[in-house]
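re: that chain from earlier
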Amino acid sequence: MTQVHSIGPDVAGSRVFKFFAFLYGIAAYLVFLVTILYAIGFVMGLVVPKSIDTGADSSALEAVVINLLLLALFAVQHSVMARQRFKAWWTQIVPKPVERSTYVLLASLSLLLLFWQWRPMPAIVWNVEAPDVAVTIITLSLAGWALVFMSSFIINHFELFGLYQVTNHVIDKEAPPARFRTPLFYKFVRHPIYLGFIIAFWAAPTMTVGHLLFAAVTTIYILLGIALEERDLVAMFGDEYRQYKQRVAMLIPWRKSI
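^ sequence. v structure.
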C-alpha cells in the first residue's frame, strides 16, 4: 500500500511557500526559454553546438529506435500531464499554483534530453540549391517560429508557461475564471501555435532523413494532441467551442476542418 502526501493548504498559503513558488515559476520559465530558443537552432541547424543533423554516429536502426523513444517520451509526458483527470490527481501532490510551472519544467527537460541524445540520420531527402529559394524557405521557417511566439502572447503567454499563476499566488490575487476568446490569428485557425510549429519543422531547404522523421512524428503528435485538447475544450466551454469548430478551420485558414 502506498500513500500520497500532499502539501497542505497551511503550507501552500504561507508567505515563505509563495515566495519560493514564485522563484520556482521563474526558474521553470527560464528553462523553457532556453529550451525553445535552443529548439530553433536545433531544427534549423543554426548557432547551437548540436543540431538535428549533428552528433554521434550510429547505425540506422539504432538511430530510428532511440529517436522514436525520445519523441515518445516527450509526447507521453506532454499529453498525459495536460489532461484534466491527471491534473485533478497531480494537484493532490503538487500545489496548484506551481502545477503549470512543473508541467512546463518537465516538458522542457524532456526536450533538452531529446536534443542531447538525438541521433543524426544525415541521408538527404531533398536539397534546394537555388539560393533565393533556399532563403525563402528559411524565412518561412522563421515565420513559423514567429507565429508560435506571437500566438502565445495574444492569448496569455505567461499563463501558458506558468508565470501568471505563481505571480497571482504571491500577491494573493484570484485568477479570473477561464473565458473563451478568439483574438487575431485564432479567428482564422483554431490552433495557430501548432500551425507555426508545423511550418517551422517542415520548411527546410535541406531535408535529411532524421529531420524528416522528426517533422513527421511531431506532426502526427500535434494532430493527436489537437484531438485530445479539443475534447477538453468542448468539456470546458460546451456549445461555444463546438460552434467555433464549425466556423473556423483547425490548421489551414479558410478551409473547413474537423
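The beta strands are 124-127, 206-208.
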